[in-house]
Amino acid sequence: MTEAGAATNGSPNGNLLEAKNLKMHFPIKAGILKRTVGHVKAVDGVDLSVRKGETLGLVGESGCGKSTLARMILRLLEPTDGEVNFEGRDVLKLDRKDMLKVRRDMQIVFQDPYASLNPRMTVGNIIAEPLKTHRIEGDKKKRVQELLEIVGLSPEHYNRYPHEFSGGQRQRIGVARAVALNPKLIICDEPVSALDVSIQAQVVNLLQDLQKEFDLTYVFIAHDLSVVKHISDRVAVMYLGKIVEVADRKTLYAEPRHPYTASLLSAIPIPDPEKERARQRVVLAGDVPSPSNPPSGCSFHTRCPRAREYCKENTPPLEKHEIKSGGPDTGEHRVSCFFPVMEGERIEKSASSSPYHAGG
Amino acid sequence: MAMLEVNNLKTHFKTQDGVVKSVDGVSFSLEAGETLGIVGESGSGKSVTALSIMQLNSKPPVEYPEGEILFEGQNLLETSEKRMQEIRGNDVAMIFQDPMTSLNPVFTVGNQISEAIRIHQKVSKHEAKEKTVQVLRDVGIANPEQRAREYPHQFSGGMRQRAMIAMGLSCNPKVLIADEPTTALDVTIQAQILELMIDLQEKYGTAIVMITHDLGVVAQLADKVMVMYAGRAVEQGPTDPVFYDPLMPYSWSLLRSLPRLDTAGEVRLLPIKGSPPSLIFLPDGCNFSPRCPFVKDECKNIDPSLEEKRPGHAAACILSADELEESKQRVDAELGVVEG
Ligand SMILES: Nc1ncnc2c1ncn2[C@@H]1O[C@H](COP(=O)(O)OP(=O)(O)OP(=O)(O)O)[C@@H](O)[C@H]1O
Ligand SMILES: Nc1ncnc2c1ncn2[C@@H]1O[C@H](COP(=O)(O)OP(=O)(O)O)[C@@H](O)[C@H]1O
Ligand code: SF4
Ligand code: SF4
Ligand SMILES: [Mg+2]
Ligand SMILES: [Mg+2]
């Protein structure tokens, strides 16, 4: 399938990035001999595509594998299995030299603005670091001062140290470092989670402005579904190392099909007292199981209000869900559930008794 | 008489750099069964307010130059440490932001809860154990008999927070102070904990002080709200008017800066510029003036105090109702914000 006008830079069907069956199984070592006694299945078979110019939101509870997925995409971590295609090339097969070139195009902004900047380096040196690594010619100081202005800091900040800045300002420094090489893709791993709400908005707006100005593609990781709704074009929901639902923003928030997505949305308090009083929450029981010992079949079955015997023995594939006709072609809606929530239905109840009415 | 009444509380810390006015004139009152939500940015004085009520601020640096904290009419600022120990846990309990700091890693969870019960109630060891299992079951921990024998590190974050609540509630306190009890938790676990708190409040008529930076949590739980900025209460009132008609530019800005689940998501966020002031070197005039989108020249000279602007609804701002309305509309128009 080809989408009109999308085949640029040798990437097929307009996707800048494609992950196929990505897995990261960390070995669990025990005993004096450090024998491998099991595996943490942090990411367990993820298929994901990111289109050029879009923001793909990636949400899920802590420990579900978001950061691990990000690190594999950037090859900061070698996957156990799978493929990462960037502009149509398999990144995992590249040698050091070619990898260095690809690195210029893929950058990351980390969650913790306090831990992610070297406290002994000046802001100028921190931002200039990628320019040095990649042997970029030209006046580095001028470029860094330019970058400081781009992210809303002052060029005079060049010689200061990270501790002299507030959390929001430090995150701006992290953003300046990420955009220094004019990358194509930036993975933002919870870039605003550690910031106060008033400051969050500053950083979110900055990221949106930079995207427009420099034609950036984002993978925006967060556990806050409100922020993700605000910034994303499409959203993927992760649970226990797998993507359980992916759709364009509007569809995902208005018509979540996976019981987990629906419960997540229902759990979030809305800053509107009247709406809160009118809400009927679906409160999930129990905790997220450990990725070292995930449940059989559908890994959500231990908490799912719709789970049946069938779900314990069979693993639902991430399948295409039929899109309503008439609407704009906003892409696919994929769901991995045998008994998805249908329009107007409450999450708890499933009308169908057949395990295969998911369509597709 | 209110269950808990705080009048003009000032909590200051003497440090090398100067006096940190962490809490600088805060008042509120709370009846049985009521929930007060305290919101504000990091460092605005929420936790220090809570710790002042519990009398848990470390003693050399802390000073209470003014104010009173009345629990059932008794001023806790003038109460002996011995009497305070009886009140803590028994009448007034606190749930902390980070459950690991308040659970002891070397004792089993059950042990710690039984201990807490035995400090406050004249019961046998055996009775305390039974009560422990019962409160753990109350807070929704499965297999409470077995879990009671486990150590805190064997619990997940959500379970630790439940254990904290179990400990806090084991003596059926009259007042429960919850300092960001769910901030470190995932939303599905947060929903469990908040539901639990609501249930327990209905059952026992507990008065709750809910400290959070999440305005959604306040909208869900609180009967009334106190917005803190730089150690002061800058807006106070019943929950609905504070949300639907905020009278202080800071509260209005906070609500405008939030990305929301219930709106389309295409509206540009309105950030609050800059960051909160240092509590040692406060700005001249209104503390919010360097960041306020409605600031006027006079704001640099006048330090507005909290004043009742509508019945039961107070704000600290020099703008008149008309000026405020005009300013809100002006900023919205500049941003092209559409209601909805
Ligand atoms: N023992 C102390 N000595 C000196 N300053 C203190 C002390 N305890 C707290 N402070 C200061 O008092 C102010 C208020 O702190 P507090 O912990 O109440 O903030 P908060 O509103 O709870 O913030 P957060 O949302 O980050 O929990 C801060 O500036 C803090 O640094
Ligand atoms: N280096 C590692 N060794 C073993 N387990 C790990 C390692 N890194 C992450 N994990 C585990 O993998 C799971 C996913 O982690 P992570 O990707 O950081 O989650 P998220 O970013 O979604 O919160 C967690 O259970 C975590 O404890
Ligand atoms: S497959 Fe079954 S257990 Fe899994 S989400 Fe769907 S209904 Fe729930
Ligand atoms: S007094 Fe002035 S600066 Fe302070 S909140 Fe009101 S308008 Fe803003
Ligand atoms: Mg992470
Ligand atoms: Mg605090």
Account of the 3D structure:
The complex is a heterodimer of chains A (360) and B (340). With 360 residues, chain A is α/β, with parallel strands linked by helices. In chain A, strand 4 and strand 5 form a beta hairpin. Chain A contains eleven helices and twelve strands. Chain A has an eight-stranded mixed beta sheet, sandwiched between helices. Chain B is globular. The two termini of chain B are 42 Å apart. In chain B, strands 7-8-9-3-10-11-13-12 form an eight-stranded mixed beta sheet, sandwiched between helices. In chain B, strands 1, 2, 4, 5 and 6 form a five-stranded antiparallel beta sheet that branches. Chain B is an alpha/beta fold and 340 residues long. Classes of the chains: A alpha/beta (360), B alpha/beta (340). The interface between A and B is large, with 48 and 44 residues. The structure holds adenosine-5'-triphosphate, adenosine-5'-diphosphate, iron/sulfur cluster (SF4) (2 copies) and magnesium ion (MG) (2 copies). Adenosine-5'-triphosphate (ATP) binds next to strand 1, strand 2 and helix 1 of chain B.
Q: What's the arrangement of secondary structure elements?
A:
The complex is a heterodimer of chains A (about 350) and B (about 350).
Chain A (H helix, E strand, L loop, with lengths): L14 E16 L4 E17 L3 E5 L6 H8 L7 E6 L2 E2 L5 H10 E4 L13 H11 L6 H11 L16 H13 L5 E5 L7 H18 L2 E6 L2 H7 L2 E6 L2 E7 H6 L4 H9 L5 H6 L30 H5 L5 E3 L11 E3 L25
Parallel strand pairs in A: 3-8, 3-9, 6-7, 7-8
Antiparallel strand pairs in A: 1-2, 1-4, 4-5, 9-10, 10-12, 11-12
Helix pairs in contact in A: 3-4, 3-5, 4-5, 5-6
Chain B lengths: L3 E12 L2 E13 L4 E5 L6 H9 L7 E2 L4 E4 L2 E2 L5 H10 L1 E4 L3 H4 L6 H12 L4 H14 L5 H5 L8 H13 L5 E5 L7 H18 L2 E5 L3 H7 L2 E6 L2 E7 H6 L4 H9 L49 E4 L2 E3 L5 H15 L5
Parallel strand pairs in B: 3-9, 3-10, 7-8, 8-9
Antiparallel strand pairs in B: 1-2, 1-4, 1-5, 5-6, 10-11, 11-13, 12-13
The structure holds adenosine-5'-triphosphate, adenosine-5'-diphosphate, iron/sulfur cluster (SF4) (2 copies) and magnesium ion (2 copies).
Adenosine-5'-diphosphate binds next to strand 2 and helix 1 of chain A.
